[in-house]
C-alpha cells in the first residue's frame, strides 16, 4: 500500500523481532502462529528490568516517528465484513409470503436463491416445480404453527414421492 505509514514498534515488537528469528531457526517446522504464542509466553515471563531496554527503544522509535511524521494519526483499518448470502433457505427465516408461494400445490419445490437466479432459471427450465427468488423476495419469519404444518406436509410429500419411486422400480 503506497503512502501507508506504519505504526512505530512497541516494546514487545522490538523484543520479539530478534526472538522470532531465533525461535524459527531452532524450530523450522513450527507454525508462525505457534511461534507467536511462545513469544507471548516468554515476554510475559520477563521481569520489568529485563523488559526496560525494549521499552526505552520503543520510546526512541516513537519519538523518531513523531519527528518524521508530525501529522501522523493511527487509524484502524478493520476489514469490512461482507455479509454471507445464504444459498439454502432455512425454515426459520421463511415467512408467510414464502409459505403461501409454496402452497399453490402440494408438491415439494426446488427453491433457487442467489444473485444469478435468472441463469439458474434458464438452466433448470425443464423442471416445472422450481421457484426462483431474487434476494429482495426473501421474507422474514412466520408463525410456529404454520411452520410445523408446512414441515409435516413436506415430510409427508417426500415419503409419498419415495414410495412412488419404489413402486416404479418393482
Automatic annotation (TrEMBL):
Residues 145-170 have a biased composition (Low complexity). Keywords: Activator, Calmodulin-binding, Differentiation, DNA-binding, Nucleus, Sexual differentiation, Transcription, Transcription regulation. GO terms for biological process: cell differentiation; male gonad development; male sex determination; negative regulation of gene expression; negative regulation of transcription by RNA polymerase II; positive regulation of DNA-templated transcription; positive regulation of gene expression; positive regulation of male gonad development. The keyword Transcription applies. Residues 5-73 bind DNA. GO terms for molecular function: calmodulin binding; DNA binding; DNA binding, bending; DNA-binding transcription factor activity, RNA polymerase II-specific; DNA-binding transcription factor binding; enzyme binding; sequence-specific DNA binding. Residues 5-73 form the HMG box domain. The keyword Acyltransferase does not apply. It is found in: Nucleus speckle. InterPro entries: HMG_box_dom, HMG_box_dom_sf, SRY-related_HMG-box_TF-like. GO terms for cellular component: nuclear speck; nucleus; transcription regulator complex. Residues 144-170 are annotated as: Disordered. Belongs to the SRY family. Transcriptional regulator that controls a genetic switch in male development. It is necessary and sufficient for initiating male sex determination by directing the development of supporting cell precursors (pre-Sertoli cells) as Sertoli rather than granulosa cells. Involved in different aspects of gene regulation including promoter activation or repression. Binds to the DNA consensus sequence 5'-[AT]AACAA[AT]-3'. SRY HMG box recognizes DNA by partial intercalation in the minor groove and promotes DNA bending. Also involved in pre-mRNA splicing. This is Sex-determining region Y protein. It comes from Rattus norvegicus (Rat). The gene is Sry.
Amino acid at each position: 500500500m503506497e503512502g501507508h505509514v506504519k505504526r512505530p514498534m512497541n516494546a514487545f515488537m522490538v523484543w520479539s523481532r530478534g526472538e522470532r528469528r531465533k525461535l524459527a531457526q531452532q524450530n523450522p517446522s513450527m507454525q508462525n502462529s505457534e511461534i507467536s504464542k511462545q513469544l507471548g509466553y516468554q515476554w510475559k515471563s520477563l521481569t520489568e528490568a529485563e523488559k526496560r531496554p525494549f521499552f526505552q527503544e520503543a520510546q526512541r522509535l516513537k519519538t523518531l516517528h513523531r519527528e518524521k511524521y508530525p501529522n501522523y494519526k493511527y487509524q484502524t483499518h478493520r476489514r469490512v465484513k461482507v455479509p454471507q448470502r445464504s444459498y439454502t433457505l432455512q425454515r426459520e427465516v421463511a415467512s408467510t409470503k414464502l409459505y403461501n408461494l409454496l402452497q399453490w400445490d402440494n408438491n415439494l419445490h426446488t427453491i433457487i436463491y442467489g444473485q444469478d437466479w435468472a441463469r439458474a432459471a434458464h438452466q433448470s427450465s425443464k423442471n416445472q416445480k422450481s421457484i426462483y427468488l431474487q434476494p429482495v423476495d426473501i421474507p422474514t419469519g412466520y408463525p410456529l404453527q404454520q411452520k410445523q404444518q408446512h414441515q409435516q406436509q413436506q415430510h409427508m410429500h417426500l415419503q409419498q414421492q419415495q414410495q412412488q419411486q419404489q413402486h416404479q422400480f418393482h
